[in-house]
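Checklist before submission:
- one chain only
- standard amino acids only
- sequence pasted in full

Submission:
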Amino acid sequence: MNKSLLERLLDYYRINYDDYLNLVKETNLATFSEGHNFDNVDKAVNLVKEVMNKKGKIIVYGDYDADGVMGTSILVKMFQYLDYVVDYYIPNRYLDGYGLTAKHAQEYIDKGYDLVITVDNGITAFEAIELLHNSGVKVLVLDHHQAAEDLPLADAICHPIVSHFGEVSSSGAFTAFIYSINLLGHIDKYLALLASISIISDMMPLLEYNRNLLRSIFKIYKPGEYLAIDLLADHEELNEVVIGMKIAPRINSIGRVIEDTSINQIVKYFVSNDEEFILNYYSYILEVNEERKNYSKVEIDPSKIDLNKSALLIKGDYKEGIIGLIANSVMIKYSKPTIIFANSLDNTLKGSARAPEGYDLVEAFTGLSDLLLTAGGHANAAGVTIKATDFEVFEKRFCDIISEKPVKKVEHNYIDIKMNELSFENERLINSFSPFGENWPTPLFRLRHIKIDTLLYSKDHKHILTTLGNNLKLVYFNYPQEELANKKFIDVIGVLSLKNFRGKDYLEFSCRDFIDTEN
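Returned file contents:
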């Protein structure tokens, strides 16, 4: 271990020192996008200005997840800054499903809307947009989802990839934020904050402009500026962990649990200046989030778990908005690809799929296209809809595909580190590589040759809680003492972070795994 910690970090991220200097250079809201813009943004801006000049009627159509809520809130707030009243609609997953539908398109035609703006959806809404187009209603699509070769008949489209903003994908709300800069003629800090939340909530790559926006916001945001955000963050300093662990789940709980159009109140929460409303609705968000937690504690009937199968496919009367959480829990417990299906009244099964690293759900679904009503997602997290009558044949064929396809072994890299290198100074060096997230993981470190009998456990013997010095603790949560029985030494893999308790800073080495070493 002759290399410095900085050199080992550079190796870990496969960058050189010049890359690092570029990574940590000063960034701000004025320069975060480094000249990037949509190639058709003037057309998109003029479209809205023309409708506004004619006092036209506008509605913003969003989505029920945190990205869609942030994107809708950005646009509604943007119009508030312009003193222009617009309507908005967050579809309910239970009543409306995902995206702009022909039913809603016809409703907006009948109500005399002049412009429909979709955000975080629309790039594949061919039928609905064609209906609007043929009826003379203008359409602006602000989306980031994968586009087909053909595009819908929208009057203008802004999309990070389709509109050549850059090579790194970003969120729907980020797209709305960039649009707002062009329409307003300046960068608004609050809109930038909402876009930053969406980058984390939608797990966008933390590279280039995505990363720069987050760094810019984290540097200038102080608790106390925006009540709606402060409450969701428990008044803590803003960073990727607070967004990912507190803010995003609370926003998402509304779309997961609520089954009526009152879901739209969450946009008011982010755009209103009514402090009483914000405080009351925040209490409501907490209540709904507790419901979400209770729903996701569903215990799967053991009789439905057949560990002899290569994958676990389970159907039942589960709440559709929660099946992704249940699937993730089951997948982690049994380390098998898992699909949880929710029964629907239309005799279909709506499923949420999760898979351990090394599997590719999207690739597996390509061999089942004749059975799929809908499908989409990522390698380790995807959604699928099938006919209820096709469940058994779908299960067999999916399991066959998983069995026949070798798992792609995922090698986790880590950085060897010595105990005396776990210092406040080195924590600051490590943190200079942040924010961490998608495509830019928190660095994993390896402490070698830890003596088992030096590790102290919690009273219930379920957690390792060991003080290694005045300002350093080693923790390994949910790792029962019996798991390390008959071992003398281990190497521990984990992350180093700065913690604070009662005003005093300390370092925590949080273990993620261990490697048994010879005595």
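Reviewer check: The CA atoms of residues 335 and 356 lie 6 Å apart.
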